[in-house]
């Protein structure tokens, strides 16, 4: 298991978080760690940070941020009004992959969902990320739906 500390992100973590997002070969080309950091990142952080249904988290090891993810709690009518947890933007620094950090982060998120009374934990993963799919399946996730996106121009 990994030696990892998971905590809520602060605004000071934004450069490290955006750098992790920018490492992503399948989506990170749209993210730039700067400098300077795009003000939109701070606006998004402030919105997440002020919403009790959303948490932006970082994972620290070896004295630095090595992972991040967002955990959102969504009310719904399905499951007799049961809440669901949504895990998004999961990233582990390329230099520390394979050390169990991803598993630690996901188990932490699942535990928080249970504590919150969620009935379902869900996530999406790019269909090209076959290794990630196997990782999530080993944690108990099942492929059950087809996800779709519609990108809107700003």
From TrEMBL:
Key words of the record: Acyltransferase, Ribonucleoprotein, Ribosomal protein, Transferase
Gene Ontology CC terms, in alphabetical order: ribosome
Residue span(s) of domain N-acetyltransferase: 4-154
Gene3D superfamilies tied to this protein: 3.40.630.30
Alphabetical list of InterPro entries matching this protein: Acyl_CoA_acyltransferase, Bact_Acetyltransf, GNAT_dom
Ribosomal protein is among the record's keywords: yes
GO molecular function term, any single one: acyltransferase activity, transferring groups other than amino-acyl groups
One of the Pfam families matching this protein, by short name: Acetyltransf_1
Record carries keyword Ribonucleoprotein: yes
PANTHER family linked: AMINOALKYLPHOSPHONATE N-ACETYLTRANSFERASE-RELATED (PTHR43877:SF2), AMINOALKYLPHOSPHONATE N-ACETYLTRANSFERASE-RELATED-RELATED (PTHR43877)
Name of this protein: Ribosomal protein S18 acetylase RimI-like enzyme
């Amino acid at each position: 298991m990994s030696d990892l500390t998971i905590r809520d992100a602060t605004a000071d973590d934004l450069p490290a978080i955006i750098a992790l997002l920018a490492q992503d070969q399948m989506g990170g080309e749209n993210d730039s760690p700067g400098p300077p950091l795009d003000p939109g990142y701070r606006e998004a952080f402030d919105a997440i940070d002020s919403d009790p249904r959303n948490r932006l988290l970082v994972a620290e090891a070896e004295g630095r941020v090595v992972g991040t993810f967002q955990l959102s709690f969504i009310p719904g009518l399905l499951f007799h009004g049961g809440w669901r947890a949504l895990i998004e933007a999961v990233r582990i620094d390329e230099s520390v992959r394979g050390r169990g950090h991803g598993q630690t982060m996901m188990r932490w998120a699942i535990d928080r969902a249970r504590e919150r009374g969620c009935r379902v934990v869900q996530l999406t993963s790019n269909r090209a990320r076959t290794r990630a799919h196997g990782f999530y399946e080993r944690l108990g996730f099942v492929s059950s739906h087809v996800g779709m996106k519609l990108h809107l121009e700003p």
